[in-house]
Design goal:
The protein is α+β, with helices and mostly antiparallel strands. It is built from nine helices and 17 strands. The strands form three sheets. A six-stranded antiparallel sheet has the order 3-2-1-4-5-6. Helix 3 packs parallel to helix 4.
């Protein structure tokens, strides 16, 4: 079943809903197929094939909303799902903010964003790659003594969306990844670390040997970890962690957090949240982007915009529902933001280590100690202690803490070494001072 067949299902469901007298309706259909192979200690540990499909319909009648879904797309099952959604709409409370996004905001041109790069890899080849990846990690150093395995995975999805405004669109997208987790031991101490590569196009994945070796290097680099005394010092986030640090702000300016009055950045549009050099740009149409979309989950056309400029928050991240609750217009973010980019000020992780001089390089965060209402931030951390611009020794069993409202203005540098594996592209990020709780 391809895009055309999914669009036919969407039309059929919308017609069935219209015949039942609903005011508005929207339908999503999808097919996901994938393969994942995991090897551990040179042998196959897990081999999984997925083939999932489903249809979701939401109807609106008299400002009441009803939803239903089915994994069976036969005509009779489709009719049953539509009927259930209509029945549920009779039972729910009225909500004047519910409904489709405005018709004039629908995407008129569903541009192709180069998101579909199928990887016709056979199970045996995926297993061989996973074994080779793990082997590279195990052989990196004699202190690598165990493994949690290496995994090669591929997924291809087809999505179609339509609503009673007359909009119907569809697209295909792929995602592929290779990962490796190994354990190092020395003098009774054990440390674990990992590395992975992810991309839309399998040709953009890093070499399996390099992935395994990087996992091994990172694990060995943690041996001899020490506790440090509680102190206040600069903290440097590696790129893969910096995107999460910025992501807390993006979660706080999401429409749901704003209209529920549950955000540490409540009503913050127009305020300087970051230093003047910080920008956050949304670029939905990047070819092969991990969060690229021509239209959002409501069919609204996506567009380039700057969420933060000169450190000042300019706009929220809104769906049509949250926008109505706030008296604003949707920012085409139903389903989340698309490709948030934080431009750097120059340099990479190594140059920022030198710039930091003395401080803590964070390589892993543990737990979820972020209060999105107050902004209080407290995370277990593992990393490296730096002095005179050079890494001295690994550190573990510490906590980095502060309040994000206070920490964001203390950002002093952002590297150009952006991590492209997720929806937020941010380089290494240096905060001039945080509390580091240790021994």
């Amino acid at each position: 079943m391809g895009r055309d067949e999914l669009e036919i299902l969407v039309r059929a469901a919308l017609e069935a809903a219209t015949e039942r007298g609903v005011d508005q309706a929207e339908v999503v259909t999808s097919i996901d197929t994938g393969l994942a192979a995991t090897a551990r200690l040179g042998d196959v540990e897990n081999l999984e094939y997925t083939n999932d499909r489903g249809l979701w319909i939401t109807v609106y009648r008299d400002s009441r909303k009803g939803s239903a879904s089915t994994s069976d797309v036969k005509p009779e099952s489709l009719q049953e799902a539509v009927g259930k959604a209509c029945t549920f709409a009779e039972c729910t409370a009225q909500d004047k903010y519910a409904g489709l996004a405005d018709a004039d905001l629908m995407c008129g041109d569903v541009v192709e964003l180069d998101l579909d790069h199928a990887w016709p890899i056979e199970a045996g080849d995926a297993i061989d790659m996973a074994i080779a990846c793990e082997k590279a990690g195990l052989e990196f150093d004699t202190r690598i003594t165990n493994s949690e395995g290496a995994t090669v995975s591929t997924n291809r999805g087809i999505r179609a969306y339509g609503n009673t405004h007359g909009f119907i669109g569809s697209y295909t997208k792929t995602s592929h990844s290779i990962s490796c987790v190994v354990l190092a031991s020395e003098s009774g101490e054990m440390q674990r670390d990992y590395y992975y590569s992810a991309a839309r196009d399998p040709g953009d994945l890093e070499d399996v040997g390099l992935i395994g070796e990087t996992a091994g290097r990172r694990a060995v680099g943690r041996l001899g970890a020490r506790k440090i005394k509680t102190t206040k010092a600069p903290v440097l986030f590696s790129p893969e962690l910096a995107r999460g640090f910025i992501g807390h702000a993006m979660g706080a300016i999401a429409g749901g957090a704003q209209y529920r009055r549950a955000s540490f950045l409540l009503d913050a549009v127009g305020e300087r949240i970051f230093p003047e050099f910080v920008r956050v740009e949304e670029r939905p149409h990047i070819a092969k982007g991990m969060a690229s979309r021509a239209y959002d989950a409501e069919g609204v056309a996506t567009y380039d915009r700057d969420i933060v400029t000169d450190g000042i928050l300019r706009e929220y991240i809104l769906s049509s529902y949250s926008a109505r609750r706030l008296g604003l217009q949707t920012t085409a973010n139903a389903g989340g933001a698309q490709n948030l980019i934080v431009p750097g000020t120059g340099g990479d992780l190594q140059s920022l280590i030198r710039e930091m001089g003395t401080g803590f390089l964070v390589e892993e965060l543990i737990g979820h100690g972020t209060n999105m209402v107050t902004g209080d931030y407290s995370r277990g951390a593992v990393g490296q202690w730096v002095e005179n611009g050079e890494i001295q020794y690994p550190v573990h069993e510490v906590t980095i803490a502060g309040n994000l409202r206070d920490l964001y203005p203390r950002i002093v540098a952002i590297g150009d070494d952006q991590d492209l594996r997720g929806g937020i592209r941010c380089g290494s990020l240096l905060v001039d001072q945080m509390t580091i709780a240790g021994a």
